[in-house]
Write a structure and sequence with these properties.
Blueprint lengths: L8 E4 L2 H12 L3 E4 L3 E4 L4 E4 L1 H5 L14 E6 L2 H9 L5 E7 L5 E6 L5 E6 L1 H10 L4 H8 L3 H8 L4
Parallel strand pairs: 1-4, 5-8
Antiparallel strand pairs: 2-3, 3-4, 6-7, 7-8
Helix pairs in contact: 4-5, 4-6, 5-6
Amino acid sequence: MKLGYKLPLLAVKDVEASKKFYGELFGLTVAMDLGRNVTFSAGFAIQQDFAWLCDLPKESVVERSHNMELYFEVEDFDAFLERLAAFNVEQVHPPKTHEWKQRVARIYDPDGHIIEIGESMAVIARRFLAQGKTPEETAALIQHPIEFIIASKEEKI
């Protein structure tokens, strides 16, 4: 028997609202639309009527469980924040910078799933290198392996 992992699936209340959210804010395209089940080309799916699908009590589907997130990286974090400002979304927290120098924003999607948008770590590595930091200094600052820094410099990531 061959078992192959496919993708994560998020339970949603309104598949059309979620398609619009992910399409308009993140520019994701739909790879397959089966009505109540939609797969995005980014590698995850959304499912309306999840309790029905799994034969679960409707009230057992929990909102805002705060135990997972979808993670996206952007090349231009400032431009993404400008784009985000045009949408009426609830923030998990205001944009912040982690100790590894990555700027991130976390928001809720229409169903209360956490979405993290982080500045590309390769962009961060290239920025420090352009400022004259050595690959070793950059690796220490952003807490990534030297191999990642070198690959970032050569834009192989």
